[in-house]
Amino acid sequence: MQNKLLIFIGPLFFLLGCAVNTVQSNNETDTKVKQLLSEMTLEEKIGQMTQIDFSVIAAELGSENPVDQRKLDDAVLKYHIGSILNAPQTPHNQAQSVAVWRNVLQSIQAVAAQSRLKIPVIYGIDAIHGATYIKNAVLFPQALNMAATFNTELSFKEGEITARELRVAGLQWNFSPVMDLGRQPLWPRLWETYGEDVHLATVMGMSYIKGHQGDDFSAPTKALTCLKHYVGYSFPINGKDRTPAWIGERMLREYFLPPFEAAIKAGSPTIMVNSAEVDGIPGHANYQYLTTILRDELGFTGFTVSDWEDIKRLYTRDKLAASEKEAVKIAVMAGIDMSMVPFDYSFYHLLLELVNTGELPLARIDEAVTRILGVKYRAGLFNAPSALLSEAEHFATGQATEINRQAARESIVLAKNEQQSLPLKKNANVLVAGPNAKLLSVMNGGWTLTWQGDNESLYPKDKLTLFKAIQKKATGKVTYLENNVVDKQAALDATKNVDVIVLCLGEKPYTETVGNIGSLNLEAAQVKLADAMLATGKPVILIMTGGRPRIITEQAELASAVILGFLPGMEGGAAIADILYGDYNPNGKLPISYPRESNDIVLYDHKPIESYESNVYHPLYAFGHGLSYTSFQTSALKLASDTINWGDTVELSVDVKNTGLISGKETVLVYLNDVAASVTRPSRQLKAFKKVELAAGQTQTLHFSLKPEDLSFIGVDLKRVIEPGEFKIRVGNETVSFTLNKP
Ligand code: BGC
Q1: Catalytic residue list
Q2: Within this chain, do residues 79 and 192 fall inside the same structural domain, yes or no?
Q3: Which segments of 242-338 are extended strands (E)?
């Protein structure tokens, strides 16, 4: 600690100012909400807190109108429900045309308009990489890929386009973005996160929210976001979805809360709750997280929504409550404002009973309903409906598709390129092999047209699989190895006349518990296929797609080139082919550490003890790794001053040069290390980055400012502190030091 001073800098984190808070109290709205609340019966209030799945109001499968009018009348007029979620055709949620959506939403709001107080229904949908459940929507790379772009502008545009396409269909509330950190690679929802780093996840999420909501989420092209899944859901100790996390308060405050805090400041008005548990307390029962921290500390004024059936599960699964009724009481008192029930009216009946018998105070109901109505007012739902955006002008436009293609290109990581095996010559004879070459679903992953994203027959016919994209570009012969099981001789026969093998391996789509696995090892059949291809002696370009890193250490060692595609979305096939043939110079960088071995899960911002003596941070590919067809060099890393006065910013500059022969984009990453502190500090932590485009031979000087809070951490007493003393900053191969003076 070196006689350092511990300086307490307040209970709130200090993240990225300039936030727009669209849900901040607004007197006019408050007055309207108060007035409306005073006119509501208890039943009407509890209805507002109830969210049902579309299936509750669904007509029989195959009916022309997906809504059953009688069931809808019951939901809205009898149970006064405040919200509906999901796409028609449940239990097999399926993308619908813009026209179907418009009709569905219009029927729902028409019934709401007939209700006594005419309170509109808020309709929620998972539009996590574009408008998932609208046919032909622009479907972007998944969040992990967006993080790999290190391009906040693309994240902003994704938010903008998603909101616009939702509004074309009449939808307005999106269960996105995921602000959980992806620090557990086994977790089947890793790809829904912006990766393992706090700073990267924070800035990508904030940009998305700003694009999606603008300064006013009631504007005709904007829509509401919902932060998921507050908090700690993403860090299950055993890697399986919806299993316990153990996250001490220091870790919670240092890693998992900051992205949520920033997203709240960016104006997100709703939050969905962690479906599992942290430190033995289920997310839906955690008063400290849902009320003390979320409301009292972070100042969140919007409403919280439970995740799927999770209030019931406090009883049926967690055995925290002795009955379903007790579960409702615990969850509502912990701070849940709206229950995604989702299949019945049990929550409505039980909550009514709890209030009527005096077991649950009316004041808590009023508080929850005030928040829900506040968001509905601010979303403009009470205003006379304005004309919907024109589908022709605002939906799946050529411009949006081009932005999507660019996002896909920037999201792909070239991890290895031995002896410039890539780019391929267009006239090369190529053998494409592997189970992921001819599918669009493997590029998109879960939440694509259906929940699991695995119904290939629903995918648009005009989008290119990787195989088709290669065929389209190549002038040489392109063949496909139909058989995924080959012996040595068959492999030799198949590759006799080819110049190069493009081997497409990875995962099939999945999400949530469906994607649970017991090991990161690649499927045995894929390993066999890879070994057979590698044994032919022909150059192998290994292309991995899927939602998480699978162990490819031996195969990558022998392959000539490795591309990590993860889930690049609907333009993914075309984008990978652009890179394969040099029509685009790759620049994606890993937003996670790609493990070398299944159990060697050490993250880049590890503690010194994790790289001490025989311990090493030795992933197959490190966080931030990603090659280009040109080369870049950073140099002349300089601090404006090597002593920093208390409260001052740290100003630094560094030159970045394109030392190769073609133009390209490079992301320059700035890492900080607090040399000695009262709580062990990560060996390095990303604090800033900039992505620039440089022509061959061009140099640019980049300037960065680190704010005092960038030097802070959660101290011994669990409060955020800054300690004076020595700090190091590393960019590329250079390191500089400065001393922070005492106040
Ligand atoms: C998922 C959420 C999702 C919700 C509604 C849940 O199972 O955990 O991420 O928003 O379903 O579809």
Answers
A1: 307
A2: yes
A3: 270-273, 277-278, 281-282, 303-305
Label the pairing between strands 643-644 and 734-740. Answer: parallel
CA 189/CA 514 separation, integer angstroms = 10
Cα distances (Å, whole numbers) of residue 79 to 352, 376, 558, 705: 11, 18, 63, 54
Which atom of ligand 1 sits closest to the CA of residue 229?
9
Q: Are residues 522 and 660 in the same domain?
A: no
Q: Is 189 near ligand 1, meaning CB less than 6 Å away?
A: no
Q: Which residue lies with its CA nearest to atom 2 of ligand 1?
A: 307
Q: Which position has the token pair 């405050």?
A: 253
Q: Domains in the chain: how many in total?
A: 4
Domain assignment of residue 407, yes or no:
no
| Same-domain status, 159 and 253 | yes
For 257-294, write each residue's pLDDT tens digit: 999 999 999 999 999 999 999 999 999 999 999 999 99
Q: Which domain holds residue 8?
A: 1-38
Q: Is 228 in the pocket of ligand 1 (CB under 6 A)?
A: yes
pLDDT for res 483: 80
pLDDT at 22: 41
Q: Are residues 533 and 652 in the same domain?
A: no
Considering only the C-alpha atoms of the chain, give the largest distance between any 2 of them, rounded to a whole number of Å: 81
Mean pLDDT of 36-53: 98
Mutate-to-test residue for ligand 1 from 241, 307, 510, highest number of ligand atoms within 8 A of CB? 307
Is the CB of residue 308 below 6 angstroms from any atom belonging to ligand 1?
yes
State pLDDT tens for residues 144-194. Answer: 999 999 999 999 999 999 999 999 999 999 999 999 999 999 999 999 999
Cα 530 to middle of ligand 1, angstroms:
36
Q: Which CATH number covers residue 524? A: 3.40.50.1700
402 in any annotated domain: no
CATH code, domain carrying 367: 3.20.20.300
Q: DSSP readout, 446-477?
A: SSBSBSS---GGGS-TTSPPHHHHHHHH-SS-
* 495 shares a domain with 422: yes
For residue 659, the domain's CATH number is: 2.60.40.10
Q: Is the CB of 187 under 6 A from ligand 1?
A: no
- Last residue of one domain, picked from the residues 609, 644, 666: 609
Atom 7 of ligand 1: nearest residue by CA position: 308
CA of 309 to the centre of ligand 1 (A): 10
* Residue 382 Cβ contacting ligand 1 at under 6 Å: no
Tokens of 8: 């307490």
| CB of 126 shorter than 6 A to ligand 1 | yes
Helix (H) or strand (E) holding 490: helix 488-495
Same domain, 78 and 162: yes
In 548-644, alpha helices (H) = 553-558, 572-580
The Cα 111–Cα 68 span in angstroms is: 12
Separation of CA 699 and ligand 1 centre (Å) = 46
Q: Are residues 586 and 635 in the same domain?
A: no
Is residue 228 one of the residues assigned to a domain?
yes
Residue 20 in domain = yes
447 touches ligand 1 (CB under 6 Å):
no
**pLDDT over 80 at 11, yes or no:** no
Q: What is the pTM assigned to this prediction?
A: 0.97
Instruction: Give me the chain's average pLDDT, please.
Output: 95
Residue 216 alpha carbon to ligand 1 centre in Å: 25
Pocket test for ligand 1, best of 272, 306, 511 (most atoms within 8 A of CB): 272
- Compute, in angstroms, the gap from residue 152 CA to the centroid of ligand 1: 25
Q: Do 186 and 259 fall within a single domain?
A: yes
Query: What is the C-alpha separation between 507 and 76, in angstroms, rounded?
Result: 42
- Cα of 125 to ligand 1 centre, how many Å? 9
Cα separations in angstroms, 684 against 428, 466, 607, 673? 43, 37, 8, 5
Ligand 1 atom with the smallest distance to the CA of 451 is 12
